[in-house]
Amino acid sequence: MFIHLQSTIDDAQRAGVEAAARELGVRLVALEPGAQLLEILSEGVPVPERGPVVAAFTVLPGVVEVLDRPGDQPLWSSTHRAATIVEVGGAMFGGGRASVIAGPCAVEDGAELLEIARTVQRRGATLLRGGAFKPRSSPYSFQGLGQRGLEHLKDVRESTGLGIVTEVLDPRDIESVLEVADMVQVGARNMANSSLLKELGTVDRPVLLKRGFGATVDEFLSAAEYLLCGGNTRVVLCERGIRSFDQVTRNLLDVGAIAHLREATHLPVIADPSHAAGRSDLVRAIGRAGMAAGADGLMVEVHLDPSAALSDGQQAIGPDEFEALVADAGVLCELDGRTLLTGDHQVPHPSLPNIPTHLRGTA
Ligand code: PEP
Ligand code: MN
Hints:
The chain is an alpha/beta fold. The chain folds into 2 domains: about 1-70; about 85-345, Aldolase class I (TIM Barrel), CATH 3.20.20.70. It has helices at about 10-25, 50-60, 110-120, 145-160, 175-180, 195-200, 215-230, 255-265, 275, 280-290, 320-335; strands at about 1-5, 25-30, 35-40, 65, 85-90, 90-95, 95-105, 125-130, 165, 185, 205-210, 235-240, 270, 295-300, 340. Helix 6 crosses helix 7 (about 215-230) and helix 10 packs parallel to helix 11. The longest helix has 17 residues, at about 320-335. The protein is elongated, with a radius of gyration of 22 Å. The N and C termini lie far apart (about 55 Å). The relative contact order is 0.14. Bound molecules: phosphoenolpyruvate and manganese (II) ion.
């Protein structure tokens, strides 16, 4: 049998687990250093019955569950390791490190993108976001600049040193997105697109996986499993709000899911208060809530002239509001011993890895 510990277990709780083991006459052995899964070994005494063991451990603070077989656990499970730290550009997500991704909803213009990038970089972002391919609800809305948008992102990456996060909608565009993206975004509408996930499972690039607005937490984790089982272990989850009956906000940021995911999975989890709020006046409060629930960072839509934005202008915040939210996020991290990496920690990022041959076009 095995005990699955919470990733946030503290020394006192760990001592309680050890005391319960001594009481039962068993020994607990970690499968690997720092793992959240301990094997229950009975040495020299008869194997204790399952019932009393389960009862003795599951009531203890810091214990998630008692398992019969760890091999049945999916790859996202925190039974495998305490924390995956995803490092990309000057950002780190997980293992006590948090970072902020910021930028416009869509890439609209090269000069404007550069100005936004310089602004968010000065005010604490370590990665720049911006969609070249936009998944819009209406086919008549701005769909993004496509390839031209990717070129703007590439130029801004070169002139600022900021790592780029941008969305891919179609497996056929993965190759060109990999030419510019330090981290590839899978949006809410594509969370369950298994063809896309299978392809991205084979690439050497971190993936930001956003939760579908109608997806359960288990469905969200199953989508992550597609990436992990393909061999791509650099996955960051993003809670961006789920659809609720109440339209007062665009979506409902599921802070309970963030807190749960921090226990259930070793993968980092960030919050996107912009798509949750749908209105700029609530972004700061909702971003704070995400960080307070334990998010490993934020993704925020920032625009210098929200009223002129071609998509999601109503939820974009300006530079001052953004800087205030970054400061809040830093304070909330400190409360539980985490560190928010801001522009001060910026390190020059290396060039992008080569694109694997199986994803290269024949042209
Ligand atoms: C976005 O990040 O711009 C976006 C489209 O988000 P989501 O997929 O969460 O709707
Ligand atoms: Mn958007």
